[in-house]
Design brief:
Two copies of one chain form a homodimer. Chain A is α+β, with helices and mostly antiparallel strands. Chain A folds into two domains: 262 residues, L-amino peptidase D-ALA esterase/amidase; 121 residues, Roll (Ubiquitin-like (UB roll)). In chain A, the strands form two sheets. In chain A, strands 1, 2, 3, 4, 5, 6, 7, 8 and 9 form a nine-stranded mixed sheet that branches. The first copy, chain A, has a six-stranded mixed sheet with strand order 13-12-11-14-10-15. In chain A, helix 1 packs across helix 2, helix 2 runs parallel beside helix 3 and helix 7 packs across helix 9. The longest helix of chain A has 21 residues. Chains A and B meet through helix 8, helix 9 and helix 11 of A and helix 8, helix 9 and helix 11 of B.
């Protein structure tokens, strides 16, 4: 059939893609804060953007272009270029024109930003950053670092897909995102590159299908940002493609990055999967799973490593979907604490459940016992660090 | 017309109502943990309960009775009697029967509980508490203290209403609630008594109208509990009533208690009013106001006393209602920081806005500039204390 192997190389794993990150002085202490993705060939593009009505300037700029191909994506951190009106768009145009003057062969360059809202881009700094770019450099890790904001580690991943006939294509990606994740790709940026022979429409179908199951199933704090972006670029250089293999690898990539964002959630110490089953339908299961991953009471109980199943039951009940006390079952991994009306939370089970909660990663199972609806959401705990990070983010 | 005056007396301000709180050993250190409200006459009842599907046993017990009158409400803290199934109902019946055996003249007694979920009521302790009750005692403050959980101060209020003809009636109330407030009366209990000559139907109309504007407009952490209850009892002893005056006084009582709950929100240091205007309609204004009061990013910015208006704009955009960057206006009290696309957040304005945020109470104004929809919601900040309280609530 086909073989999918994890490889190094991030957004440069696919043939023909270049990327690097530089320090343009947006962040202090010479930290990297600007990145690019470049390709000599024009690429097809598929994308998903935030559902926030206050769309940041780079997203409005992108959307205004309509259907197009590009070979250059410029990304900056520290400034979101959001709530900047027409001036925000003009700033992008000025910066991208500058890049085109300085570097040959940039077609329909686009920009993506993340950081503080409501402040104009520091154009001179960005231009100085562009001057530092050497386009034919493949340093994907530097790029992944440059797009970080409150992230504590950079996020990249890549796969090589080998088909039966020996042909090979690659998909690679980088992402940033730590706070404001959920439920609609909040302050996350994700750039995916591939040399598979796939066009924009087909890529868009994949993104539309997989985004709800990955990025939109991940929650750090239930907020949705002005800048969320997933971009998928194909240069078709491998000359080969396999739908099922592509989808499978892309799903793994998006799920991995979504989980890494949650794991890196501001102040998070745990990555928790909420596996909801037995709901009236998948939509209701999704509602419950997301209510659980967003609940402050559940999140603080996780932080306290307290198997407080009552808060889980209460959150299920509050989520608005059909649920019944006598049909509900709750387990922490394989430790069932409440089964269809029967309270199994004795001392022995409490100790076992508490042990599960000490893990860095675990699954909470919640079966509504009604029908076959199921969904999996990904969340984290909320502790002192979250407050600390967010109480003085701007300063 | 009529005169409304604030008076002392809480739930005993209305003629004929008795109330007290005792220590039954549910809480440590001889703290009060059981309360009653008693009246020699039978009272009409109106009520509002949680929308949580996992309704606690006392609520299921109350609802199963259908229409009835009562003269005795028993309230305990520390244990919610939720997720306790049929046994939870049987426990209530046993306890209330015990109360009826011990004390003469209790008709259709009802119970209300708040505290930890999923643990059976300690019946013997509760019975011992009932033995301590002396029904004809008027100690409303002791009752208000007994129903507290994580509350840091007790909440009571009362009004005397004097009509033109010299006739007088009273409305008094007590409430508890500190965490899990919103958007549907989460873990709050509120008991209101009146000697006005008003029947159950008329009281219910008042509660239905005023609850959305008061308790359901208040948010501490966006969670909705299994036990939320508002109960309004009338013994008609004053023989008088005035619809407008009653509604006005009741609104003041409910709004005051709702604000006190938010002010006492777990770890909260500020009470913030979100006044949203200019929305497409009132429903959309409500959505925005509640999104603001629930946003973790806004709440942590409040805690940090950081006038981060970008997070407000982003939350408006994420709320799902019609909103436009170029029509939005945001003010902290009278300090306008963003006006219809124009960023007014210069150094002087930032300093002024930061000063507003240092207050204990203030209003954030958010005008969407579209139509006439408006709503006011009440929220608090979220700081380290919230995490501390909720990370080890059970222990």
């Amino acid at each position: 059939m086909y073989k999918i192997e994890k490889i190094q190389g991030g957004v440069c794993a696919a043939k023909g893609f270049y990327s690097n990150g530089v320090s343009a002085g947006l962040k202090p202490n010479a930290q990297k804060d600007m990145a690019f993705i470049y390709c000599e060939e024009l690429c097809d593009i598929a994308s998903k953007f935030t559902t926030n009505k206050m769309q940041a300037a780079p997203i409005r700029h992108f959307k205004a272009k309509g259907v197009f191909q590009t070979n250059f994506v410029l990304i900056n951190s520290k400034n979101a270029n959001a709530m900047t009106g027409k001036a925000g768009i003009e700033d992008i145009e000025e910066i991208l024109s500058f890049a085109q003057e300085l570097h040959q062969n940039l077609h329909n360059p686009v920009m993506s930003s993340t950081g503080v809202i409501g402040v104009r881009l520091p154009k001179e700094k960005l231009k100085n950053g562009i001057k530092l770019f050497e386009l034919k450099t493949a340093n994907p890790t530097a790029a992944a670092e440059a797009i970080m904001t409150t992230d504590t580690f950079s996020k990249e991943i890549a796969y090589r897909i080998t088909l039966d006939d020996g042909s090979i294509f690659h998909i690679g990606a980088m992402a940033k995102g730590a706070g404001m994740i959920n439920p609609a790709m909040a302050t996350m940026l994700c750039f995916i590159t591939t040399d598979a022979d796939i066009d924009a429409k087909e890529m868009q179908r994949h993104l539309d299908k997989l985004t709800p199951l990955t990025f939109n199933a991940a929650s750090v704090d239930g907020d949705t940002s002005t800048n969320d972006t997933v971009m998928l670029l194909s240069n078709k250089k491998s000359g080969t493609y396999h739908k099922e293999a592509f989808e499978k690898a892309l799903y793994e990539i998006m799920l991995h990055l979504a989980k890494m964002m949650v794991k890196d959630g501001e102040g998070a110490t745990k990555l928790v999967t909420y596996r909801v089953t037995g709901a009236r339908n998948d939509e209701e299961a999704e509602k419950v799973a997301k209510a659980l991953s967003d609940s402050l009471l559940v999140k603080t109980a996780l932080y306290g490593e307290d198997p407080n199943w009552g808060r889980i039951a209460s959150t299920v009940g509050a989520s608005g979907v059909e649920a019944h006390e006598e049909k509900l079952t709750i387990s922490f991994e394989d430790v069932c604490v409440y089964k269809q009306g029967e309270n199994l939370f004795d001392e022995a089970n409490e100790a076992k459940a508490a042990k599960v909660m000490q893990r860095d990663e675990f699954t909470i199972y919640c079966d509504l016992g009604i029908a076959d609806g199921s969904f999996e959401a990904y969340g984290c705990d909320l502790g002192y660090e979250y407050v600390k990070i967010n109480a003085d983010y701007r300063t």
